Amino acid sequence: MVGVRRSLVMVVVAAVLAPLALSGCGDNKKSGAASAAWVGNGASASAAPDASQGASQGPITESANVPIELTVTPAAGKKDVPTSAEIGFQVSGGKVTTVALKDAAGKDVSGALREDGSTWVPAKTLKAKTTYAASVTATTDSGLSKTATTTFTTMGAPGKKTGTGLYLFDGNTYGVAMPVVVEFSPGIKKADRAAVEKRMFVTTTPAQPGVWSWTSSGTQAYYRAKEYWQTGTTLKVRIAVGGVPTGGGRYGDRDRAATAKIGRDLEMKVDNATKKMTVTQDGKVVRTALVSLGRKSKPSVSGAMVVMDKLAETVFDTTDTDGAAGYKTKIQYAQRITWSGQYVHSAPWSVGSQGRTNVSHGCVNVSPSNARWLFDNTLIGDPVTVTGTGSKLAYGDGWTAWNVSWSEFVKGSALPVPDSLK
What we know:
Region (Disordered): 46-66
GO cellular component, one term: extracellular region
Largest sheet: 6 strands, mixed
Organism: Paractinoplanes tereljensis
Active site: 345 (proton donor/acceptor), 363 (nucleophile)
Shape: elongated
Number of domains: 3
Strand order of the largest sheet: 14-15-12-10-18-17
Pathway: Cell wall biogenesis; peptidoglycan biosynthesis
C-alpha cells in the first residue's frame, strides 16, 4: 500500500527524461455495481526489481574517462525475471537522462520513471518467457554521457495467482467520499504488503496527496486524501500488480487501471435521536427525510459509510443465514452501505414508524418518495454518516476508509508516510 501518492513520470522511450508528475436487513453478499468491479483469478503478471538480480555495466558513449559510474538491473543474462520487472540503476557523477527498453522483436516498450527517480516502470506488464534489452544513459552537467545496457528474460506464467479487483470504473463519476478500493484474494500478509503497495499508483488532478491503508486481513486496501475529494477531481489509478510476488509463491493476476471523475458534494447524515436524514449538496440542505433504523435486536451501525451499490429493485433474502427466522422480500431503491447487509431503501411498510420508532432489521428505512429521490440524486461514493445508534461500524464492513481519524488511517500504510502527510 502506498504510504504516499505514488505517481510515475511519463517519458518517451529513448527520449530525454523530464520529471513530470506522474447479517443486516439485506443480504450479506457483494452484488451489483460494486461486485461487478471484481474480476477473479485471471492471468497476467508484475513485480519489483530484486536486489539479487545484480547489475550490468554496459558500454560508454564517450571515453573511458567519463566521470560517471552507472550500473543497471536486472543483471545481464538474468532469467526467470518477474514480468513486472522495473529497470533499476545506480548512478554517480551524473543523472539518468534516457531509459529505453525493447522486446525480442526490437519494439520499443513505453514506460515511466518513478517520481523519486529510483527506477523506470514499464507501462504494462511484460510478456512471459520473453527476452528484453534495456539501455540507460546518464549525463554530466558538462554534457558527457555514459550508457549501460542489459538483457534479461522473463519467467513463465506462474502456477499460483492472487486475484485482484479495482472498485473504480473507467469514465464513471463518483461521490466525494469515494476511496480507491483494491481487493485481493487471498489477502496479502503484512510482510508482503509493502512490495505490493509500491506498485499501486494514484494521481489526482488537482493534486490532493493521499495514503494507502490496509484492512487487517489484507483483503482490501483503501486510498484517500485527508479530506473528501474536491468536486471536479480526476482520479487516475494504475494498480500495477500483475506478476508482482504477493507471498506464498503467488503472483498478482493482472494490472488494472481506471480514470474517473468526482462529482458534486452530496452528503447524507442520519441522526438516530431525531430519526431524520439531512441531505446537503455543496453545503446547502436540499432534502430531509424521516427514517426508521434498526430495532434493538438488529441495530443499525453508527459510522462514516459510503454508497457502494445502487439497485432499483432487488430481493433481500436472509433465509440462508437466519433460517426460519429469516425473510425474503422485494425491495426498491436500495443503496448498499455495508457488506454485512445494511442499506438505505424504500420501506412503505414502516412509513408510520419513520421519524418515531426503529423497526428495521438494521437498514435505513425511508418512504417510497424519499427513497426514489435519493436514488435519482446519489452517486456511488457519496458519504452516509449515521450517529447515535450505540452500535459501531466495524472497519472493513464496507468502504470504511472515512470511519477512522486521519492519524489512525495512515498507520495502515505498509510504506513509510512522509511527515507532511501525518
